[in-house]
Specification:
The protein has about 475 residues and is α/β, with parallel strands linked by helices. It is built from 17 helices and 8 strands. It folds into 2 domains: about 240 residues, no CATH class; about 170 residues, abc type-2 transporter like fold. Helix content is about 55%, strand content about 5%. A hairpin with a 2-residue loop joins β6 and β7. The two termini are about 30 Å apart.
């Protein structure tokens, strides 16, 4: 069949240029390696999407001698409290937050001074004592102020880097919300218990009937709102007792591995972003190979001889299309396999769907390559047109920076004008959504990529002049 004969001939031409093939396969891998080792654990996420809260915990705890008051037989004995552990557990149970412990205030100050941390939350030795004494009543500590919670009143402070005001402000707001969520139910619960002591159970019972959706005697947020507790150290029980003894370690629940292991940081979460991003970016550099093949054929006059042969225009283009398309698919599969073997990335729960994305991405790349081949007349023009076009589209789509989510909202919408953006969305569903990838979105993205490919191939078909000499 003429198509396969032409395809085999062009494939041999491509295979002879081993250096170009090595660059096509190895360069993306090298770039992913360099970026993976250089970028931090938060790469690919906006500052407000994922936060690292660094803390210094010097809290010595507090022996609450008033824990047995209020007629609660289960709390008849004084209770040792460690409110800093409650705060830590609340932070650790909040989605998108990672808690990091720093050993000393001096180390925290050095990290902030160097700009390595935008803010560090320090719990002083008297934090639990001050927190336990918080009350609306006279003689207690009232930490509430205009901004929310006065951390200084709780023997606590937030060390901030003045050069990172935005990031430090976000961490400050997290500290405020968490503190308010812990201290306010404690103060309300103590006040309500005092109402029962001073005015009798009749008034207390009336208030309970007035506010049936809330347990005003609870001293935790979960108890106050009658919701499930956050964790084992925040059970939301009634009475003043807050679990969490002085002897507890305060260890946070296991967090997912973000940094990876070994010199290559194998398994680091960032490779789930970097590998597909640069797979997509380098897939479109195939325009250089395809464009050079067409220009070479025209310069040598072989294209005219093919036109003189009993071959249709479709057979000629198909014979030249298939080898380049095969190389593009091979490149995509190679990078996915290398990502799994070299970097320890996951293929997600639906790995077979990755093949569909590779096939449709390569189709759209081949369409773009055919347009460049039709417009370029010399190998220099192929290099200039192809490189500039691919870099511009990669930058516009977000594949150069690794993720569209890092772009402003307007540019996220504009990026959908490029095929690379749709390929990135498909890979994101399959690789960054391990629990339940939305296959409907993947199908939609593959459909759009197919439409891009078909449209660009038709455009290249109409622009390409096979019988003209460069």
């Amino acid at each position: 069949m003429p198509i396969w004969t032409l395809a085999k001939k062009d494939f041999r031409l491509v295979w002879r240029d081993r250096r170009a093939l090595v660059v096509l396969l190895a360069m993306p891998l090298l770039l992913i390696l360099v970026l993976g080792l250089s970028l931090g654990e938060g790469f690919g996420q906006k500052p407000d999407d994922r936060l690292r809260i660094s803390i210094v915990n010097l809290d010595e705890g507090y022996l609450d001698k008033d824990a047995g008051r209020g007629g609660n037989s289960q709390a008849a004995a004084p209770m040792q409290r460690n409110w800093s552990n409650v705060i830590e557990n609340d932070l650790a149970q909040t989605a998108g937050i990672r808690v990091e412990r720093i050993e000393s205030v001096d180390e925290a100050k050095r990290l902030v001074a160097r700009g390595s941390r935008s803010a560090v939350w320090v719990f002083g030795p008297g934090f639990s004592r001050q927190f336990t004494e918080c009350s609306f009543m006279p003689g207690g500590v009232n930490p509430l102020d205009r901004d929310g919670v006065d951390l200084a009143a709780l023997d606590s402070e937030l060390l901030r880097d003045p050069t990172q005001l935005a990031a430090a402000s976000i961490i400050a707001q997290v500290a405020q919300v968490t503190s308010l969520r812990i201290v306010l139910p404690w103060m309300v619960g103590r006040a309500f218990q005092r109402v029962g002591q001073e005015l009798g159970g009749f008034v207390q019972g009336g208030l309970k009937r007035m506010f049936p959706s809330y347990d005003l005697t609870a001293t935790t947020w979960a108890g106050l709102t009658r919701s499930q507790p956050l964790g084992p150290n925040d059970a939301g029980g009634k009475g003043p007792g807050i679990p969490g003894s002085l002897g507890s370690s305060g260890a946070n629940p296991a967090l997912p591995e973000h940094e990876g292991v070994g010199f290559l940081s194998r398994g680091a979460a960032r490779y789930q972003i970097l590998v597909p991003a640069y797979l997509v970016t380098f897939a479109y550099f195939l325009v250089l190979i395809v464009g050079r093949l067409f220009v070479s054929e025209r310069q040598q006059g072989t294209m005219k001889r093919l036109r003189a042969a009993p071959l249709s225009r479709f057979q000629i283009l198909a014979g030249k299309f298939l080898p380049a398309y095969f190389v593009s698919v091979l490149q995509g599969l190679f990078l996915l396999a290398a990502g799994r073997i070299v970097f320890g990335m996951s293929w997600g729960p639906q790995p077979l769907w990755l093949l569909l994305v590779v096939l449709t991405t390569s189709l759209s790349a081949m369409g773009l390559a055919l347009v460049v081949a039709a417009l370029a007349r010399t190998e220099s023009q192929v290099a200039v047109y192809g490189t500039l076009l691919v870099l511009a589209l990669s930058g516009l789509s977000g594949s150069l920076m690794g993720s569209r989510e890092l772009m402003p909202a307007l540019m996220e919408r504009v990026s959908l004008l490029t095929p690379q953006a749709w390929a990135l969305d498909a890979y994101r569903q399959l690789l960054a959504n391990p629990a339940a990838p939305n296959l409907g979105i993947v199908l939609e993205c593959c459909g759009v990529l197919t439409a891009f490919g078909a449209g660009l191939i038709l455009a290249g078909w109409s622009l390409l002049r096979l019988d003209e000499k460069a």
